[in-house]
Amino acid sequence: MPMVPASRRMACAETCTSAAxxxxxxxxxxxxxxxxxxxxxxxxxxxxxxxxxxxxxxxTDDAAxxxxxxxxxxxVAALADPHADAVEALQARVLPAWREFAIGQVLVGxxxxxxxxxxxxxxxxxxxxxxxxxxxxxxxxxxxASDDAMTPSGETADSAQPLxxxxxxxxxxxxxxSCDDHTGRMAVPTPLQSRxxxxxWGVVTDPEPLAxxxxxxxxxxxxxxxxxxxxxxxxxxxxxxxxxIVLGAxxxxxxxxxxxxxxxxxxxxxxxxxxxxxxxxxxxxxxTYSLYAPLSFVRGxxxxxxxxxxxEWLVHALRDLGVHASHExxxxxxxxxxxxxxxxxxxxxxxxxxxxxxxxxxxVTLAYDMDAAMMVRVLRxxxxxxxxxxxxxxxxxxxxxxxxxxxxxxxxxxxxxxxALREHALALLPGAHVIAAHQIYGATIEENxxxxxxxx
Length: 456
What we know:
Layout: H1 6-13, E1 21-28, E2 34-41, E3 47-54, E4 57-58, H2 61-78, H3 86-100, E5 107-108, H4 112-124, E6 202-205, H5 212-227, E7 234-237, E8 244-247, H6 253-256, H7 259-264, E9 268-271, E10 279-281, E11 286-294, H8 303-320, E12 326-328, E13 332-335, E14 338-348, E15 359-367, H9 372-378, H10 383-389, H11 394-397, H12 401-407, H13 414-428, E16 433-434, H14 437-441
Parallel strand pairs: 6-7, 6-16, 8-9
Antiparallel strand pairs: 1-2, 2-3, 4-5, 7-11, 8-10, 11-15, 12-13, 13-14, 14-15
C-alpha cells in the first residue's frame, strides 16, 4: 500500500474529536464483520471529518492505520458537495480507493460496499431537524440501519435511513472449499496439518493472575519477542487478575460499552492489539490462551485460512472432550448449540537488528459461563450486528462451555476445563513440552512489559 505521511495518519486518528456534532452509521458484511462510520459536523452542511471503527481485523497495525486514513479521506471528499447524490459520490470515491490501495489485503472481514453503506447512513442521519428520515422501502434487504446509530443530539435512532436499491447488503465470498457441507464451518483435518511439524511447541501457564492491562501489554511484548527470535513458539494459558471488558483494536468504546455501568460492575476497560469484537471477562468464567507462532507458520495463507489453521488443535481438543466444535469463519469457535468463543490474530514483524522471522499471534477466549443479564447492562450491542447473524440478542448466540460439557456428559469446573485443554495441547502439538515460567517471564513478569513492541 502506498505510504501516507505520518502527520496525516495522526490527523486521521484524531478525526471527529472536536466536531460540534457527530452522526454515525453502521453496516455488517454478511459472513463478516461490522464497520461503523462517524461523521463530524461543524457549522457547515458538509461533514468536516470521518472516523471508521468496527470489529474487523487487519494484517498489521501500521497497514490498518494507512488504510483507514485513505478511506476516511475518501469519505470526506465524497461528501464535500452537498448537492451531489451521497451514495453515488461515496461509491465513486470509496470503491476506487479500496482497489487502488489494495485495502482488501489489509482489512479482514469487511466488504468495501459496507463502508459506503455505513457512511451513507451517517450522512443521511443529518437532516435539517436533526432527525432520521424513515424510508423502509428504500433500505437494502436485510440491511437496515443500526438501532445504535447516533443522532446529532446523541439520542438513539430507531428508524431506517434511506438507501437506494442499488446497494444490496455486502457479503464475503462463498464458503471456501474446506468448509463442512453448507454450514460455513471449516472442516478439521485429521491429524493436524503438517505445518504444525515445523517446530516444537512450548506450553506455559501464567505463574500468577495478571491485571487486565498487564495482560494486554504482556501479550504484545511476548509476541514481539517471538518475532525477534528471542523466544521459541509456544502456547500461553492466561490467568486473569480482574474483571475486564476487552475492546478490539479498531472498535469505538462509546459505541460498544456502557462505561458507567461497566465501572459500577467493577470492570476494567482495556484494548488489545488485535482486531475483532468485544470480550467480557470474568476470571472464574473465562478461558484465554495465546498461540505465538512463527510467521512462516501461516505463509501463503489468506487470513481466513490462517485463523482456521491456528484453531485446529483447539477444535480437536474440544471434540475429545465431547463438544462438537468447529471453526466458523471469520473467527468463531462454535458448535450446533451456539458460539463458545472467538479468536483474533495479528502479524508481528521482526525488529531491525534482530535475527527473528516474525510472529503470528493468535489468541482465543472461550466463555466457560456467562451472565447474560450483566452483559446487557455493560455492553451496547449493535442491532445491525445482530440482524446480520439472524438472532435477537447477543446472549442467544452463545452457549457456554460449561453447558456444552455437561450436555456431553463431561461436566467440569472452569479450572478443570482449562487444565484439560492444556493437557490436550501437550498431547496434540508436535514436540510439545512444558516451559518453565522463568524461561518466558524472566525473574519477574514486569521485566517483559518494560518495552513497547513495534507496531508494524
